[in-house]
Structure formats: structure tokens, C-alpha cells
Write a structure and sequence with these properties.
In chain A, 37% of the residues lie in helices and 16% in strands. Chain A is of the alpha/beta class and 179 residues long. Chain A has a 5-stranded mixed β-sheet. Chain A is elongated and about 80 Å long. Chain B is mainly α and 439 residues long. Classes of the chains: A alpha/beta (179), B mainly alpha (439). The interface between A and B is medium-sized, with 18 and 18 residues.
């Protein structure tokens, strides 16, 4: 019995090492927190337009019968810069409808940023106080949502979209292959 | 400095451990006396309890007998092993004593030595410290950053005059990209796309268009474009190493297997560098971090690696020439001359290499010494190929003089003197030698 007690620390160590090894190799993402909006109608959208002179954004903009990509961004966010060329390409080469929402970002910062990088957004909203982001279950920027023609959220990407996301889900989704 | 302090601390710790460990004596029969001491204690306690009356006399006597019996047994066991009734057990006892005595000091030395060995394997003590504030700032080189504004201003000025100036459009695309920290923005992309039709082979335009494709999630297109650019570039184009590094980086990030590169042009004697493997970016960066001595050391180990490879594949003539050149640069003239000879046996070398070979020979000579027969052989071939070669004329003259053939020496030296410019520093020396030889 006493001997077993001596083995206990070693056993604990072995268990922990096993767990860590599994965590490292299984591809589990401990940062992944899932999303509550996927599979449900898109949360409420009621925002002033980012670009002056455009009508405000409403729920109707997400229920046009065509798939829509919604991207939350900010001019102060470096990953947004990294994913920006992908949106440029989605707009230019795939003709995607992209709605951009500047999150906790002043208009005076967001507009020059878009001017410098290029503006791939069909519609652009301004969520200065981050309330819409709260409704959408946003944890930060950049985050991207795929919304089908009926207004149902089909995918939610936390962090910048990548080439892999593009090839595996976004492009098939735009072609109607992903439900 | 820090490494030195750490080493000092480790040494002190090991010394503090070793001192008592090495002084410790393991008395051979310690165990017996220890056991006996315990039994004596037990007997004394028994006596006290009997006197105090807590133990009955009969029980005390029984316990006493039991303890005494154990003492005898312990004594028997000890004498048995001490006398070596069986040689094996005595030997085993001795060796276990030795293990007990030497294992702790050995371990306390082994651990730091293992650490040192690992550090020498993977550590880079020459690496300068990188304070947090400095990190990441070196990526866009300062000089580069400085001229982005100038580049953009110049491009815009030229576009104001001619909006279709392809060169200016390409510069604008590059400037906008650099301004955005290396992201090809949409305005940059548009400028580049407008510039492309006029300059479909422009490396800069093709590179940045490919970069946009890589950044916009189309790595395949980027790699295809870059590989086409690579194939269309002259072999000594300055952007090739960077382009190849970018291709490798993007292919790796996208998990694309690179098809093997086009076979390098067949090695010719004129360009022994053509088969030189391009050091990777990491290797180049690692090399740049080294001190001159370490760099020399690293180059030397690379050259020795090449020498070892050639020992296995002695038919690689271009390899021998490369090795000879490397040895010569390192100042190992004897090894260089030997490597030139190996290349020469595979196929006779041309005049240019003969000159290098001869130089490797004469550099080994002490001042005033006479060239060796091997050196003379090479020099004679060089003279035949290049009758006006100064090196051959001078040293063959030395050899001829040493062999007693003064007229031949004088003839060569006078030819050389006529070839030398009026202000050549060796003129005086040569004139003296001619005079001494009786010319």
C-alpha cells in the first residue's frame, strides 16, 4: 500500500505527459470556443453606413436570396491587413457580396484604411460601440460569417480567414455547395 | 558574459557536491557495527524496563535471548562475507561499494557535461542578444523604408506626365505594397495589372502579382507565376535567391509539394560555381550572425565536407575545381594544388585554371626558395599556354637558375622585365636578380 503511494506522483506525471502529448498532436485547438450563431438566422443588423451618403444597413441586406459574407474588421487590427487581399480577390475574381463592418473603429480611421488597401465591400457599416458585435457573438476582429440567401448563418470564422478556409469552405459555399 | 557566469555557477555547484561526495568513506563493515549498536540499545532499554518493573523477569529474559540470538546471527553473516566464504559475494559487495562511492560524483559531473554537450550542439553563443524593443524592426530594412516615400513620389510625378508609363506604374505598385508593410493592396494590384501588358516579362511586376496571388489565397497561381519568372530569369539574376526563398515559403505554408526544379545547366569547366548548392536563407542568416573566426570555421567545415564527399565521388571534376578554389581562398595552398591536380587527371585544365594552380604552388614557397618539380611541371604547362604569363616567367627563371641553366633564366627574366610596367614594384628586385645571374 505504501509503495503504491510512492508511485502516485510518477503516475500523475505520466498522465499529464500523456495528456500534453495528445493535446499537441491531436490538432485540438484550445482557443476554439465554438459559435452559437451558426445554423440560426443572422442576428439583428441595424447600423449606420460607414461610407458617407449611403443608406444604413438592415436585416434585409442579408436576405437577398444570394449568399453574403459578413466581415468585422478594424483599421487597428493587423490580422485584418493580412486577410484583406483575400477579400479583394473574393470581390474581384469570385464576384462575392461582402458586407464589411468596422468594429470599434472611428470612421476617420476606417475610411482611409479602406482607401489605402482597396475597398472590397458592397456594403459597409459602422459598429462604433461594438453592440452589434455583441449580438453577433463577436470575440474580436477579424471575424467572418457566411450567410446563405435566406439569412441563416452557415459558418463563423474567428480570426483571419486563410487560404485553406477559402478553398475548403468559402469558395464551395459561394457556389452553393456548402449548406 | 552571461554564459560565463552560468558556467561559473555550475562549476561551483558541482564542486560543492563533489567535495563531500569524494571525501565520504564507506567503511567496509559499517553495517555490522550499526546493527550491533541497535541491538545494544535494545538490550539497554530492556534492562531499564526490567528495573522499572514494566516488564516481567521471565519476559525480559526471553526478549534478551531473542536479541542476543540476532546479534550472533548478524555477526555470523558479517564474518561470512568478510572472510569471503564465496568469492562471488565478496566481489559483489566490493563492486556495489564502488558503485555507491562513485555513482553520485559521476552523475553530478555527467549532468552538466551533458548540458554543455547539448549546448555546443544546438547553442549559438555568438548570437547577439535581441532586446524586446529591437525585435521585428529589422524586417523592412531602414534604407528600404526611407526610399519608399521617394519611390512613390517619383512614380506619381512620372504618372502625372504619362498616365500609362508602365515603368512608373510598376514602381507605384511596388511602393504602395512596401508602404502597406508588404501587403499588395488593391490600388497596388491595379497599378501592376495596368503595367503588365506593356511589360509582360518585368520581374518586378510578375513578382508582386504573384505575391498578391499568394496573399489572396491562390498559392498555386503564385507559385506557377513565380516559377515561370524563375525559368525566364538569367541564371545570375540578383532576385533569384529571394524569389526561390519566396517560392519555398509559400509552397510550405500552403502545403504544396514543389515539383523538382529544372535541372541546372550541365557543369562546364568555365563556371565551376554552376553546381554550387545555393546556401539556404537560414544558412545565410546563420552565417551572418557569426564572428569572422567562427565564419572562417564554418566555411572550413563546409569545405571539408565537400572534400569528404569528393573522396567518395572522385570523378566529379567540377567538384574538385570548386574544392581547389575554396582551399585557395582559405590559404590552404597545398590542398588547393592537390585538388587542382585531381581535376587535371580527369581532364586537362585550361590556361585560366593553370594560372590558379600555379599560384597555389608558388604561394607555398618560402621567400627565395626554388619551385618543386610538381610546381615546375605546372608552370611549364602554363608557360606553354600563356608565353607571357609573369608568374611562369619568373618562377621558371628561378628554377632554371637553380638548375644551373643561367641563360634560360636570364631569357625569361628579361622577357618579364620588358613586359612589366615601368612602375611595377618588383622591377628593382628582378633587375637585381638579372644582374646577379650575370645578365
Amino acid at each position: 500500500m505504501r509503495r503504491l503511494l510512492f508511485i502516485l506522483p510518477l503516475l500523475t506525471l505520466a498522465l499529464m505527459a500523456g495528456f500534453f502529448a495528445w493535446s499537441l498532436t491531436s490538432g485540438r485547438d484550445p482557443a476554439s470556443i465554438g459559435s452559437v450563431v451558426v445554423g440560426r438566422p443572422a442576428p439583428k443588423l441595424d447600423l449606420p453606413a460607414l461610407r458617407p451618403g449611403e443608406p444604413p444597413l438592415t436585416d434585409a441586406d442579408l436576405r437577398t436570396g444570394k449568399p453574403v459574407i459578413v466581415n468585422f474588421f478594424a483599421s487597428w487590427c493587423t490580422p485584418c491587413l493580412a486577410e484583406h487581399p483575400l477579400f479583394t480577390r473574393l470581390r474581384e475574381r469570385e464576384g462575392a457580396t461582402i458586407v464589411g463592418i468596422a468594429w470599434k473603429n472611428k470612421r476617420d480611421d476606417a475610411l482611409p484604411w479602406l482607401k489605402r488597401l482597396g475597398d472590397p465591400f458592397k456594403l459597409a457599416g459602422l459598429d462604433l460601440d461594438g453592440k452589434t458585435g455583441l449580438d453577433w457573438g463577436l470575440s474580436g476582429v477579424p471575424e467572418t460569417y457566411l450567410i446563405d440567401g435566406t439569412g441563416i448563418v452557415r459558418r463563423h470564422y474567428r480570426g483571419p480567414i486563410t487560404e485553406r478556409d477559402l478553398n475548403e469552405t468559402i469558395l464551395p459555399f459561394l457556389k452553393g455547395a456548402v449548406k | 558574459m552571461l554564459e560565463f557566469l552560468l558556467a561559473l555557477l555550475t562549476t561551483a555547484t558541482v564542486a560543492a557536491l563533489l567535495w563531500p561526495l569524494l571525501r565520504m568513506r564507506l567503511p567496509a563493515r559499517d553495517r555490522l557495527s550499526g546493527e550491533l549498536a541497535i541491538y545494544r540499545d535494545q538490550l539497554a532499554e530492556l534492562e531499564r524496563e526490567r528495573e522499572a518493573g514494566t516488564l516481567k523477569a521471565a519476559e525480559a529474559a526471553a526478549a534478551r535471548t531473542e536479541i542476543e540470538r540476532r546479534m550472533l546471527a548478524a555477526g555470523d553473516a558479517a564474518t561470512g562475507s568478510a572472510l569471503g566464504t564465496t568469492k562471488g559475494t565478496a566481489k559483489a559487495a566490493r563492486s556495489s561499494d564502488a558503485v555507491q562511492k562513485w555513482l553520485p560524483p559521476a552523475l553530478s559531473l555527467f549532468v552538466p557535461l551533458l548540458a554543455l554537450g547539448l549546448y555546443l550542439q544546438v547553442g549559438r553563443p555568438g548570437l547577439p542578444a535581441a532586446p524586446f524593443a529591437d525585435r521585428g524592426t529589422e524586417r523592412p530594412a531602414p534604407s528600404r523604408q526611407m526610399d519608399v516615400a521617394g519611390l512613390l513620389a517619383e512614380a506619381r510625378a512620372r504618372l502625372a506626365q504619362d498616365p500609362n508609363d508602365a515603368e512608373a506604374l510598376a514602381a507605384l505598385g511596388e511602393g504602395l505594397t512596401l508602404e502597406a508593410g508588404g501587403t499588395v493592396t488593391q490600388p497596388a494590384l491595379e497599378a501592376l495589372q495596368r503595367a503588365l501588358p506593356a511589360r509582360p516579362d518585368d520581374a518586378r511586376i510578375l513578382y508582386y502579382l504573384g505575391l498578391h496571388e499568394a496573399q489572396s489565397g491562390d498559392s498555386k497561381a503564385a507559385i506557377a507565376r513565380w516559377r515561370a519568372l524563375e525559368a525566364g530569369s538569367p541564371p545570375d539574376a540578383p532576385w533569384l535567391p529571394m524569389l526561390r526563398a519566396e517560392i519555398a515559403r509559400v509552397a510550405k505554408a500552403a502545403g504544396i509539394e514543389l515539383p523538382p526544379a529544372a535541372p541546372p545547366p550541365a557543369p562546364s569547366t568555365q563556371s565551376p560555381q554552376s553546381t554550387t548548392p545555393q546556401p539556404s536563407r537560414e544558412q545565410q542568416e546563420a552565417m551572418a550572425q557569426l564572428t569572422p573566426e567562427q565564419r572562417q570555421q564554418a566555411i572550413r567545415s563546409m569545405v571539408e565536407g565537400l572534400a569528404a564527399r569528393l573522396a567518395d565521388a572522385p570523378q566529379d571534376r567540377a567538384g574538385w575545381l570548386r574544392l581547389a578554389n575554396a582551399w585557395k581562398v582559405l590559404g590552404e595552398n597545398a590542398s588547393a594544388a592537390d585538388a587542382y591536380g585531381r581535376a587535371d587527371t580527369l581532364a586537362p585544365v585550361d590556361a585560366r585554371i593553370l594560372a590558379d594552380w600555379a599560384e597555389a604552388h608558388v604561394r607555398q614557397l618560402a621567400p627565395g626558395a626554388v619551385p618543386s618539380p610538381q610546381a615546375v611541371a605546372v608552370l611549364e604547362r602554363l608557360e606553354k599556354a600563356e608565353p607571357r604569363n609573369a608568374l611562369a616567367l619568373f618562377y621558371l627563371g628561378v628554377a632554371a637558375e637553380a638548375a644551373g641553366n643561367k641563360p634560360a633564366a636570364l631569357q625569361r627574366w628579361k622577357t618579364l622585365l620588358a613586359l612589366l610596367p615601368a612602375d611595377a614594384p618588383i622591377r628593382g628586385m628582378l633587375e637585381e636578380r638579372i644582374k646577379a645571374a650575370g645578365g
